[in-house]
Write a structure and sequence with these properties.
single chain, mainly alpha, elongated
Length: 144
């Protein structure tokens, strides 16, 4: 077995390398490259762990953790089901909605208010669609 330089040269080979020494050298180079790669990966992992820990602490401070925050207080209030006392207000709200649509009162509202109302309707419809998908266990159609 000859190295590539000696195979393609015009002169007779001056030195023969044994397969063992060439393979041993290649293995040493591969081992060195693997150690360098492992060191780079370890460095990157430690940097990303530090960044992740900073992100978690910052997020937890906004969620009512170390730095305070009102997220859990607002979430508990907003995501709770309606109480029996809220039912009357909900009925009045729907009555007002139907009245404003039939009397075209939305024409007297600002564009910003109309856009907010449309986006609220789109959000409600979107959650309805998600609930339907979960209920039927499929994204596309009912199984007939």
């Amino acid at each position: 077995w000859l190295p590539a330089q000696e195979l393609f040269s015009l002169h007779a080979p001056t030195q023969r390398h044994s397969r063992y020494t060439t393979d041993h050298t290649m293995a040493a180079v591969a081992q060195k490259k693997a150690l360098e790669l492992a060191a780079k990966l370890a460095s990157a992992a430690s940097k990303s762990a530090g960044t992740a820990s900073k992100a978690v602490s910052k997020a937890s401070s906004g969620l009512g953790g170390v730095g305070g925050g009102n997220f859990w207080k607002h979430a508990q209030k907003e995501l709770a089901p309606p109480t029996p006392a809220d039912i009357g207000g909900i009925q009045k709200g729907f009555a007002g909605l139907t009245r404003s649509v039939t009397k075209l009162e939305f024409l007297n509202m600002t564009v910003r208010e109309n856009v907010a109302n449309v986006l609220t309707g789109v959000e409600i419809f979107g959650w309805f669609v998600v609930g339907e998908m979960i209920g039927r266990g499929s994204i596309i159609g009912y199984k007939v």
